[in-house]
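Side project, low priority. Logging it here so it doesn't get lost.
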Amino acid sequence: MKLHTFLLVFVLATSSLNLTAQSTEINHLEIGLNQNKTGNYADALRNFSLEIEKSAANPNPIAFYNRGFAKYNLKDFQGAILDFNKALELKPSYFEAYVARGQSYSKQDNHPLAIQDYNEAIRLNPLEGTAYLSRGISKYKLENFRGAITDFNKSLELIPDYAPTLAVRADSKSKLGDFAGSIEDYNKAIEITPKRTNYLSGRAFAKMKLADYKGALADFSEVLKLSPEKADEWYYSGLCKAYLENYRGENGEKGALEDFNKALELDPEKIEAVYGRGFVKAKLGDQRAAMEDFTKAIEFGNNENAKILYTAKLGKIQLDELRNGLVDRTKMSDMSAGRAEVFFHRGLAKTKSGDPKSAIEDYNRAISFQPSYAAAYFQRGIAKSSLGDQRNAIQDCNNAIELNGKFADAYFVRGIIKLALNDPTGCLDLSKAGELGYSPAYNVIRDYCN
């Protein structure tokens, strides 16, 4: 069974440092803290960025910590780590930041580094139950199940009856073959949180290992009432019914055959369900159909491409949509620069009408009249990107950023082009774009950077 990770809510630590602001000024830090508490992370991030900029001469670790918290919740784990680094540079005893940075490393599957941070958090505050839980999860991921259980035990001493800790300890016990102990923990977790499907599934797997197929089936049935879209649970429900020799449903109830069919309806390439269905068909006397399923299962098993993995990052259609959207967002500029503006806006019109090659000529003219024209470099980069010249498109974004270090759109486009070229540093560009206020960057980070 896969470990179901738990989102650990970071502590908004404000008690150890004074929060002061002039009464005549907007208190961006306080506004951001409230927005973090209510889950408005994109707006919170902007307020923390404004606070960081305003307090550059006397940086506040709380602002960096909470901006990292916002980035974490927007799935920008690399950006979060950079902010937690800064918070710890400013305040080395900031144990909450060690926990938070560890959780960010954990999200990137860098569990050795995560454990180092949890160790330091525990050294600074041995009574921090979240640190023990988080360290236990990283140990679990590294298959150190006994070490994980030790940490979960300590966490439960400090935070008793916390259902996520009970559930992950239950899963660790299953990994070590202690199925009775696992069921005991799942029972407690389910009593606290009755409708968590992953808890019910975990208990069902443990029951199956003890050959309690009726008990397991009852749990899987409850899961499927709550989440009927789960292909795995339909498969295991069918498996339990097959063990109980309930091959075909009666009196309106589904049998193993119907469950395997449902699993394959939801996931047509689920090899186990194909095999299971073949087994049931054979038991029901339909040998020809059974052989078809067995053959299909063998073909799936030998086919490395049975699951098509999307590895091309952002495809052409997505890139075109992003480029056009950014062109549409360009506003009318001050015409004080004269002919540069005229060429620039004619270039925009050509880009939008689908003539990027001719648009580049106009952007070139605009740049020749005004060499510091950051927007012209940026739009020329978009046009080059649409023609497939991604390397030079990146260079134009570089030029735009050199001229305007707060050019969020340029960071964004450079980031998505880098991702299209399989350059992981694109995620850092997207993080910067989000930090500068271009919130759609976090949608791309969520889908392509983790």
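Brief comment: The chain has a mean pLDDT of 87.
Revisit when time allows.
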